[in-house]
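Hi V.,

You were right to ask for the full record rather than a summary. Here it is.
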Amino acid sequence: MIRYPHAVLAAAGLIAVPAAAQIAPLFTGTWKADIATAKLPAKPDVFELKDGRYTCSSCVPAIAVKADGTPQAATGHDYWDHIAVKAVDPTTISYSFYRAGKLTSANTDTVSADGNTLTSRWRSSDNVKKLEQSGTSTETRIAPAAPGAHAASGSWKPAEIKAVSDSNLIIQIKETPATFSWTQPSGETYTAKFGGPAVPFVGDPAKTMVKVRRIDARTVEETDTRAGKVVIVYTLTLQPDGQTLGVKVDNRKDGTKTEFTAHRQ
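Predicted structure:
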C-alpha cells in the first residue's frame, strides 16, 4: 500500500525582504487525506505464483522466491528483508514481511469469481507507537494468469483504495517562519528548516532523510532520500480556499506517480 507522505516547506527569497517575513504559516493545522480523490499509478502490478515459486517482475527490485510460506531473503527493499508467500486457497495468496527476523506486516490478494478484480488487504504495526494499521484496495486485470499459475497471478492495474486506517491519513503540521514540523499519529516526526540540509524522519525504519524547499507561497516540495539516493518527491499545493491541499507523489524508486487531496480538520 501506499505510505502517506510527510510533506514539508522550504524557503524562497522575495526582493529585499526576507521570505520568512512575508509568508504566513498557511499549512499549520491537522490534515486528513481523502482516499476518494486518489489518482493511482498507471504502472501495473505483475506477479505470478506457479510451480511453488513466486515472482514479481514489477516490484523494485524484482522478487523471485520459493512460495512455501517460509521467510525468504529479498534484498534491496526499504522496509523489509524477507518475505513469506503461500497459496491460502485457489483464489487467495498471502504475504508476510519481515525485517531483522521480526514480522512487520502482512497482506492478502484475493481474486474475484470472474477473475477480473483483485482485492488486496494489508495490516501492519511497524511504527513508533505500534498502532495496528490496515487498508483495502482493488485492482483490475489487464493480462491473464499463465496456464497452471495461481488464479490471482497476472497483470493488474490499480483501481481504487477502499479503506485506510485514520492513523495513516491524518497529519499534524506546524509551520514557523524558519521551520516546518510534520507528525503522524503513529509517532513518526521531523522538523526541517526551509531550504536547509536534510534531516532524519525520526522513527522511520527505512532511515529516510528529508530535505525541503518552498516553491512559492502556496507550494512546497519535499525530497526524500535513502542511502543518499532520491526515492520520493512530494509536492503540496494549498488551494485558494485554504482548506484543501493538493498532493502529488513522485516515487522515483518505483517509477510511479500518485495524486490526492487532503482536507483541513
